[in-house]
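Researcher: Good morning. I'm working through a list of sequences from a screen, and I'd like to move beyond sequence-only analysis. For each chain I'm collecting a predicted structure so we can compare shapes side by side. This is the next one on the list. No need for commentary yet; just the structure.
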Amino acid sequence: MSFEVFLGAIDALFTYETMFWVVAGVFIGIIVGALPGLGPPLGMAIILPLTLPLDASNAIILLIGVYSGSMYGGSIAAILINTPGVSSSAATMFDGYPMSKQGRAATALSVSATASAIAGVFTITALILFSPVLIEMVLAVGTPERFLVAILGLAMITVVTRGSLAKGLLAGAAGLLVTTVGSAPMTLDRRYSESFLLYDGIDFVAVLIGLFAIAEMMKLAGEEGGIAEGDVVIGGGIVEGAVIAIKHPITVVKSGLIGMGVGSIPGAGATVSNFVAYSEAVRSSADPDSFGSGNEIGVVASEASNNGTVAGSLIPAISFGIPGSSSTAVLIGGLLMHDLRPGPSMFDADGELLLTYTMLLALLVGNLVILLFGLSMVTRLGYLTKIDTDYIIPMVVVLSFLGTYAIRINPIDIITIIVFGVIGFYMVRYNYSVIAFVLGVVLGDIAEDNLYTALQLSDGSFMIFVNPFEYGRWLSPVLVIVICAILFGPFVKRSIGRVLGT
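Model: Good morning. Structure tokens for this chain:
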């Protein structure tokens, strides 16, 4: 049945309309990724409300294209002006910018495009081949397990938070509080909804657009002129760069797998995989001292890893609704906006399995588009880094307001994006974790819905989560143990260290 659905996905993908959205998504993503300060979450958040007239398949394909394209686009600014367009291209600067200063910018850009495309194709193909195993795992997860997976995602706040753990937990709790506004999902009791405009709760899309689009524009408003300072000169050989990437298949595959593995861990993301893959390339090199001064393998490893991360990040996002990054949080918002609920239905042959396969195949084709676009437009990519912020800010703000209002025609959504834009701006300024806040917003409803249903199945007994003998659910206690390990493991480790130290 899965193979028949896979063939149906091929038919669905290769139509003029769907292919147009694949190419459009990648093109928009490259532009957004090349502009420092924007990045995939903001680009996807802006596009999200504009997908409302599209059918679910094309809408999600457009968002996926933006996500994938921006991963490559981030390398453009990193190589040309030593400023990563996205954080997942930070390691690309180490060798990409020195190559630019040596007059080999075109070589570095073509290395980036080729490595990104090959790693993306490889990891997506691996995900498609192993999808039957993933399908069986997801379909075996019931309501109690889905609740615990949501709690596991919330526990990841302790992992994703950089700096003060208290600030991360506070941000996550604030995100959970947002989901309590409106009518309760099961009992329909009204909570914190003094106005009828709040009966349906605070719109998730409006929150995302406020946090990512408006907050980033407030940050950019303090900067003047274009993003790049001075002239951007592109020299070197395009074919030379493509050949360099092809000549290092082990580095491409290894870095792509690192990206896929790290990306599948909620909270890790492409920035982590970027540095892990780069560090591994340095470790395994016969000439590690050459890294940081224009070694092409550094660019290969960095760029192969971040596109590999896209495939890995889709696993927790579409399987359990757990966002591994800000980008997948927006993607989940797109699924929910189009009445698609992440979880077993995404892998059910009678449900949305066709969409899932179409989405993966679109990502596969999107990487080929990245290769063609990246190699053909190398000499023109410098223009993207010189767009004046005075043009970027008003366009983004107008699109954000119009798109948000168009979703529900509810004036409260306009207020929502303003309020959360200000909140997002100050969260970044004072080092509060935005991804922890997003985890709370995304997982709050999932946790509440499944907790209520699980307790109905057990007649109100919480033992359904920990007693496998009575209820026959062996995965639940395993998840409880993992959650406890994540929450209390660091404290136990420190305590043991103090004891051993004395």
